[in-house]
């Protein structure tokens, strides 16, 4: 006979299988039969009588007068410790509250709390008893004896409760597992719904992406888009042309850079006279050659022809040749540059005004946003799937544990989940 049978006796014939939904009721009916019964009720009465006796003995001790001849110091010590013994008795009585119920849980709780209070108070009493008995020997001895008798009653109460405690823990553990399984089942249901919602959301997003991609493809096949592509190609050609013209202008000034810098430095140092207009054009040569007036080269040529000091004759002749070459070609290059730059800006403005450009940009932006949202949803979906798997594995484990607990209560019972 196992410990459950010892407590409840032989069970009547019951179904071997029980549905999970019925388990709480089955356990509840078992717990109702779970009582310490007459054993606890009888000892409760004895404990109540014992507490009255302790109260009476403590009162006698508190009112006792010293008899015999004792040194005053000893009397003071004994009296002080007697008062502490009486105080401990009051704490003991105040903290032992006999329960009205005799179910195992109530009895176990009462026994545990009572023994804790009893041991603490008795330990403190014994410290004071060593000094109290020197003057109040008989009365203090009676108090200790009554308290020891109370402890014996608590021991009697606790002796048959070990099996009850094991059974109670089994029932409580089973109820706890039932609650956990219910919570995990609810979490699994919620997680499955979350996964379903994410699947539907991702499916909706993919359809929207496909729809917008189709719109973008249709846009790319339209005459407007072809015109836009041609404009983009024209823009690229014009970009190359005006940059080529600008490069040609800059190349004209490569051999003139050092002489022009020398003239500027001499002018800045006050060693070379230069009219304001000429100085301005000189600075443009160094900073923005495309804006230099072609007439500047004629004036610069005349200045250098009349100057025999700044450059030696050989260098001056080479510089004059480069100036003449630049003056002869810069006008053509500048015109080509300005024409192509103007055409480039006009084409660029035309492209920016095409509605199809905004349409394409809007579709591409929408597709990108939908794609990002879809990726985010897919990541969350994976997290939910991992969480669901963890919950399902945990649920299987908890069901196994519950079956083991139920088998401990009744080895024949099989839980149907």
Key features?
417 residues, mainly alpha, Four Helix Bundle (Hemerythrin (Met), subunit A), 2 domains, two-stranded parallel sheet
* Beta-strand percentage range: under 5%
Shape by Cα distribution: elongated
Percent helix, as a range, is over 70%
Structural class: mainly alpha
The largest sheet, given as strand count, sense and whether it forms a barrel, is: 2 strands, parallel
- Total beta strands: 2
Number of helical segments? Answer: 13
User: What number is the mean pLDDT?
Assistant: 87
What order do the helices and strands follow? Answer: HEHHHHHHHHHHHHE
Please mark out the parts with pLDDT under 50 across 5 or more consecutive residues, or reply none: none
Strand order of the largest sheet: 1-2
First-to-last CA distance: 28 Å
Radius of gyration over C-alpha positions, nearest whole angstrom:
53 Å
How many domains comprise the coordinates? 2
Write structural notes for this entry.
The relative contact order is 0.10. The chain has a two-stranded parallel sheet with strand order 1-2. The chain has 417 residues and is mainly α. The radius of gyration is 53 Å and the shape is elongated. It has two domains: 1-35 and 178-417, no CATH class; 37-159, Up-down Bundle (Four Helix Bundle (Hemerythrin (Met), subunit A)), CATH 1.20.120. The model has no long low-confidence stretch (mean pLDDT 87). The protein is built from 13 helices and two strands. 82% of the residues lie in helices and 1% in strands. The longest helix is centred in the middle third of the chain and has 60 residues, at 161-220.
